[in-house]
Specification:
Helix content: over 70%
Number of strands: 0
Low-confidence stretches: 356-370
Distance between the termini: 70 Å
Mean pLDDT: 87
Strand content: under 5%
CATH topology of the largest domain: Rhopdopsin 7-helix transmembrane proteins
Order of helices and strands: HHHHHHHHHHHHHHHHHH
Structural class: mainly alpha
Shape: elongated
Number of helices: 18
Largest sheet: none
Length: 405
């Protein structure tokens, strides 16, 4: 796993420092915001810890300071204890007004300080009996009582902290109010739970070695836990800042998919009713909103132009077959409208107008009302449903074929 860590940990360090630099722009506007300062501290601490966790860097630090396993201690204190405390402080100020958040933040800082002193004391005791530097400090020394106690204290504290982070993030997401803040908190919650796999793995190692197991055999869990969990945590905590910029992209993609879904129906109308088209077809990547608007208008104009070719018997047959297929409500309406349009286009192509035939039981215009939505989005969604039925529905095909026969 050393090779994987040599690649993954620098990438995670870059990710954390990139998040730090990204959030630094907020210092000008929110210099005294405790949540922002704590968030910056969390990213800086974790970025430093991952840089130190890179095997070559950890080895160089130990040699430079001439103190075996000093890098391991720094990784655990900075990237574990201090990082989790900083994230909990962030959540306290995000969820509570300052007068309520400060006591919670102070408690977290006191707990982190106590944990740091306890771990430092155990590390010093363990260092006194060390024979040299360890490539995997916790796993290679877990049989020694001082290191086992150090490990259990460390992983126990981190598991409690990560579960608390996940719990608070998920809880606060329910009343966050802002969409992207809610999404970010949920992502951070999932990331914290995934990242906790690392510390469950370390706790199991303490027990596993007593039964002759070799924890390095499943060290891949550490790589997976960090590689998946940390990006989710970092991404989730920064998502409220950059997430809103994705909304226009999501809207564009939705419009593009709708535009493409209308193509089969629009093309069929364009071939028989070229006069409904204002502009010749062009790339959909430019001015998509306008092109979608024009496509909706042109399809509606086509529906009006095809009225003389519609037939009530097609509507009745489509409604019957649709009912037999279990279609109701708008699904049934869409199938009936699609069947009428397909039949009317065929009649137009053959040059045989089919005046509307009304009866006491069925008025085809009731199935072909020019309605569907109060705005562009709902109108596009309705016509997209009709276009899909126009191409794919077996009920539409059967209704039209029955009438032709």
């Amino acid at each position: 796993m050393t090779g994987a860590k040599s690649i993954l940990f620098p990438l995670l360090a870059i990710l954390c420092w990139a998040a730090f630099l990204y959030k630094c722009h907020g210092l000008r506007l929110e210099r005294r915001d405790p949540a922002l300062l704590a968030l910056l501290a969390a990213f800086a601490l974790k970025g430093t810890a991952f840089a130190l966790a890179t095997p070559a860097v950890a080895r160089a630090v130990d040699q430079r300071l001439n103190t075996p396993d000093i890098a391991a201690l720094a990784i655990h204190l900075l990237g574990g204890v201090a990082f989790s405390a900083a994230v909990l402080v962030v959540l306290a100020f995000w969820a509570h007004p300052p007068d309520q958040a400060w006591p919670k933040a102070r408690w977290q800082l006191v707990a982190a300080t106590a944990m740091t002193l306890a771990m430092l004391s155990l590390w010093i005791v363990a260092a006194a009996g060390a024979s040299g530097r360890s490539t995997h400090y916790l796993l290679q020394n877990v049989r020694r009582p001082a290191v086992a106690a150090y490990t259990l204290l460390y992983v126990g504290a981190l598991l409690v902290a990560l579960v608390e982070i996940a719990r608070l993030c998920w809880r606060y997401a329910e009343f966050a109010g802002q969409l992207w803040l809610c999404r970010g908190l949920r992502a951070a919650a999932v990331g914290a739970l995934i990242y906790s796999i690392n510390f469950v793995n370390r706790a199991v190692a303490v027990i596993g070695v007593q039964f002759g197991l070799h924890p390095l055999d499943w060290e891949v869990l550490t790589v997976l836990g960090a590689g998946i969990g940390i990006p989710l945590i970092v991404g989730g905590l920064t998502l409220p800042s950059w997430g809103p910029r994705l909304s226009p992209l999501a809207t564009w993609w939705s419009n593009y998919r709708t535009y493409r879904s209308l193509s089969p129906l629009w093309i069929a109308m364009h071939q028989e009713l070229p006069e409904i088209v204002l502009h010749s077809p062009a790339s959909t990547l430019s001015n998509l909103n306008y092109r979608l608007y024009r496509r909706i208008i042109e399809i509606r104009d086509g529906q009006i132009a095809l009225r003389p070719y519609m037939n009530s018997e097609v509507a009745v047959r489509a409604a019957e077959l649709g009912g037999e297929a279990g279609l109701v409500g708008n699904e049934l309406r869409a199938v009936v409208e699609a069947a009428q349009l397909k039949f009317a286009l065929t009649a137009k192509m053959q040059g045989s107008p089919s005046p509307v035939k009304s009866s006491a039981n069925c008025d085809p215009l009731a199935f072909s009302e020019l309605s569907g939505g109060a705005d562009l989005a709902s109108e596009a969604a309705w016509l997209s449903r009709i276009a899909t039925a126009f191409v794919q529905s077996p009920v539409v095909a059967a209704s039209v074929n029955d009438r032709r026969s």
